[in-house]
Amino acid sequence: GLKPESPEHEVLLSFPMVEEEEPLFSNLDLFLFSLIVGLVIYWFMSRKKPEPIPEFKKLDTPTLTTRETSFIEKMKKTGKNIIVFYGSQTGTAEEFANRLSKDAQRYGMKGMAADPEEYDMGELSRLSEITNSLAIFCMATYGEGDPTDNAQDFYDWLQENDDEDLSGLTYTVFALGNKTYEHYNAMGKYVDKRLEELGAKRIFDLGLGDDDGNLEEDFISWREQFWPAVCEHFGVEASGDESSIRQYELKEHSDINMNKVYTGEIGRLKSFEVQKPPFDSKNPFLAPVTVNRKLNRGGDRHLMHLELDITGSKIRYESGDHVAVFPTNDSALVNKLGQILGVDLDVVISLNNLDEESNKKHPFPCPTTYRTALTHYLDITHPPRTNVLYELAQYATNSKDQENMRKMASSSPEGKALYQSWVLDSCRNILAILEDMPSLRPPIDHLCELLPRLQARYYSIASSSKVHPNSIHICAVVVEYETKTGRINKGVATNWLKNKLVTDNGHKSTVPMYIRKSQFRLPFKATNPVIMIGPGTGIAPFMGFIQERGWLKEQGKEVGETVLYYGCRHKNEDYLYQEELEESEKNGVLTQLNIAFSRDQEHKVYVQHLLKQNKEDIWKLIHTDNAHIYICGDARNMAKDVQTAFHEIAEELGGMTRTQATDYIKKLMTKGRYSQDVWS
Question: What residues does the Flavodoxin-like domain cover (predicted)?
């Protein structure tokens, strides 16, 4: 669960802390200040009135820009009447939007999926210019109830424009969220409510998808009721055409210059060979791995510490930020897929969009080989969503298999139950499905069209840029487990990272990465106490915080109490960073080191138990000393249990009712004094 992007905090960071320097402004300062003001005024007075050039500029732009920012013009040009906007961080909302825009064809309508970041959302009021028009919003919530990165501008626009008249807009919203988080589906709920406030007409009720339960099932059930409502509204009927409609066509390249072929780059062709800043999600930096060590001394897990070198990249980060890495799939898995489908994986291909007007020319960078696509670009490890099963069903030669695949994609209770047990509970990825359904051998190009994109993975940075300006530290646990079918499933990114040895056959190992800013930040006043709660790999950002508080101390700054609550299973097995933490305690940077070793005694002891044991101290820090609280790690149990512990402490020592205590902690959240960096 990652953090929002809000300018408030950023702005404050740029003002230097004023120390006790006696005269605040010297005469020289005042002289320079007056001079600058004078020059600025002179420049303003002497400027010629600007000619209204921009008007003409606008007319020329179509020839210059390849991107059309008007979705209205695009819809008119391509005869579309349904537009599906998506706010997506990990690709699921985008996938749902594509499915809905494809659905439209069954009802004699034409849909397009659209990224709000690419279009001028101020045009929503003009949608009525298109007959029978409808806007669908698939909006995911990210982090602490925030918009996804690509919907941030749209969110700002909705908040700022009170006088916008959207009475010509017909809309519906499907929200994607996760119940384990505090602000469940906040973004979808906000868009739904806000569009109505601005006069838009809701055609169908807000759908709430819960990824903690079964997001796919929530979506199917909503969609099943949504389309009949649309048909009724527009007076249309479904054409009985349930057959699958291909979105891309296959082109095989027999004699192509290999310099034109993508080999795993995310954005620009050859961007991994010639690296150019700035680096971001569309242009990651290849950071060499300088350290990769196992942290735990025993136990059956593999916890690891990696260091990525960002020298010369111009990349800057703050403690509390996240590093995103682009992993690759296990080559053994890729080879098995090639074998089972009987395909030469090294054929160079392109999948080209049949809708030539679409902004999305290819499902992944093309031209490339099947091997590269399955290794770098496609998610082959998650259990496939039902639309993939539905579209592939036609290729099963056994009619029972075909029937089961279609059933799993339906909204019938038995179909849902079958999908839940046979696919989700059994953790069957696409390879397992092919292995367990020998009659299903789809063409590989159709499979590649349907599989979702492989996503970047986010890790809380475990270092401080004040101490390590050219290095980013990652702390992670390798994911590996046995499924109900007896297969071993391995986490894509953690196993890939584990195998990133510092030198691999004399070459440096590199990791494609970029930084995602967060609001998980130390207080501006170094004198504010901090209470950090991070069991397991939740310790990561606090290693950065502790390094930074140590650095501030070395600078001669007065630093407030720095309190850590950490937890692991056994003191002599998986106590991560023991040397560093004990050293920080010894030199007074960590004023308290509280550790819950959950399995070193009869009864389990967790961080929340230690919080309750030290309740007087905790309450004084929060209520009297203005402490900031930080929680990192598991959202499902730990973050909830810790929050309950704080409620109980406030009740008991603050003499509050449960409701008052809950409000008290909520207020700390809104003030930025209770921050969470959690995942589930």
Answer: 82-227
d(CA 219, CA 98): 13
90: annotated binding-site residue?
Answer: yes
Q: Per-residue confidence at 108, pLDDT binned at 50, 70, 90?
A: confident
Q: Where are the alpha helices (DSSP H) in 419-530?
A: 430-436, 444-450, 492-498
Question: Which one of the listed residues 222, 227, 496, 679 is annotated catalytic?
Answer: 679
* Interatomic CA distance for residues 214 and 419, integer angstroms: 10
632 is an active site residue: yes
- In the DSSP assignment, the letter for residue 356 is T
Mean pLDDT value across the chain: 91
Q: Is the peptide bond before 50 cis (omega within 30 degrees of 0)?
A: no
CA separation for the pair 442, 447 (Å, rounded): 7
Q: What are phi and psi of 234, to 5 degrees?
A: -95, 0
Is it the case that residue 37 has pLDDT exceeding 70?
Answer: no
| Alpha carbon distance 11, 458 (integer Å) | 25
Catalytic option among 465, 632, 634, 675: 632
* Residue 457, marked binder: yes
The residues, ordered by sequence, that sit 6+ positions from 554 with a Cβ below 8 Å of its Cβ are: none
Is residue 193 domain-shared with residue 86, that is, in the same domain?
Answer: yes
> How large is the C-alpha radius of gyration of the chain?
28
pLDDT band for 633, please (50, 70, 90 cuts). Answer: very high
Catalytic residue among 460, 463, 509, 675: 460
Contact predicate 458/516, CB 8 Å:
yes
Residue 491 falls inside a structural domain: yes
Query: Does the annotation flag 88 for ligand binding?
Result: yes
Residue 142 annotated as binding site: yes
On the 0-12 / 13-18 / 19+ scale of CB atoms within 10 A, 146 is buried
The DSSP string of 49-93 is PPP-THHHHHHHHHHH-SS---HHHHHHHHT--EEEEEE-SSSHH
Question: What's the Cα-to-Cα distance from 403 to each of 186, 406, 408, rounded to whole Å?
Answer: 38, 5, 9
Provide the residue range defining the domain that includes 295: 275-325+458-518
Does 460 participate in catalysis according to the annotation? yes
| Predicted pLDDT of residue 27 | 61
pLDDT of residue 470: 98
Please report whether residue 650 resides in a domain.
yes
Find, among 289, 288, 283, 280, the residue nearest to 317 by Cα: 280
CATH number assigned to the domain comprising residue 80: 3.40.50.360
The reply to whether 177 sits in an annotated binding site is: yes
Give the C-alpha separation, 281 to 90, whole Å: 12
Q: Which residues on neighbouring strands pair with residue 461, listed in sequence order?
A: 474
Does 184 belong to an annotated binding site?
yes
CB 106 within 8 A of CB 238: yes
Is residue 106 within 8 A of residue 237, CB to CB? The reply is no
Question: For residue 478, is pLDDT > 90?
Answer: yes
CATH number, domain with residue 671: 3.40.50.80
Active site residue 677: yes
Q: Give CA–CA dist 286/269, Å, rounded.
A: 14
482 and 399, same domain (yes or no): no
Residue 394 annotated as part of some ligand binding site: no
pLDDT tens digit string along 200-228?
999 999 999 999 999 999 999 999 999 99
pLDDT band at 3 (very low <50, low <70, confident <90, very high): very low
User: Would residue 427 show up in a list of annotated catalytic residues for this protein?
Assistant: no
